[in-house]
Amino acid sequence: MADPRTGESRRASGAGRQSSRPQEDPDTVLKRQRNTIAARKYRQKRLDRVKELEDALESMTQERDDLKLRLARQEAETAALREMMKMKSGQDSGSH
After folding, report:
1. Cβ contact 56:64 at 8 Å
2. Which residues contact 2 (CB under 8 A, 6 or more apart)?
3. E-strand spans in the chain?
4. What is the pLDDT of residues 9-66, one digit of tens each?
5. Where are the domains of the chain?
6. Contact yes or no for 1/9 (Cβ under 8 A)
7. How far apart are CA 12 and CA 15, in angstroms?
8. Can you tell me the distance from the alpha carbon of 91 to that of 96, in angstroms, rounded to the nearest whole number?
9. Is residue 8 very low, low, confident or very high in pLDDT (cuts 50, 70, 90)?
10. What is the model's pTM?
11. 81 CB contacts (<8 Å, ≥6 apart)?
12. Are the C-beta atoms of 2 and 8 separated by less than 8 Å?
């Protein structure tokens, strides 16, 4: 978020800010570092999953489009064959 008074931007979370606390407990520092790493790993995993889903969607969309085209061709062929059958049966009944 930008501070209109100074023109500087600030982070919404406290990430990247230097601690104003005197000395932190080493266990707390270690816990915070582990949490930061875990959060980064989780965010990356989430991004990877979104990418995986987007790729799957693209693949399935392409497959659907291919199947629609194939169906349209089959329907056109069926209609043409039905028309040929009509014409053939019309010729057969006319020759008797």
Report:
1. no
2. 8, 9, 10
3. none
4. 555 555 555 555 668 899 999 999 999 999 999 999 999 999 999 999 999 999 999 9
5. 25-88
6. yes
7. 8
8. 9
9. low
10. 0.56
11. none
12. yes
Contacts of 3 by beta carbon, 8 Å cutoff, 6+ apart: 9, 10
**Structure confidence by residue, pLDDT tens digits, 57-86:** 999 999 999 999 999 999 999 999 999 999
The vertex-18 CA angle with 12 and 23, nearest 5°, equals: 130
State the Cα–Cα distance between residues 52 and 69, nearest whole angstrom. Answer: 26
Q: Is 19 helix (H, G, I), strand (E, B) or coil?
A: coil
Q: Which residues contact 64 (CB under 8 A, 6 or more apart)?
A: none
Largest CA distance in the chain: 110
Instruction: List phi, psi (to 5°) of 9.
Output: -100, 150
Q: Token digits for 8?
A: 């500087």
Three-state DSSP state, 64: helix
Place of tokens 């816990």: 31
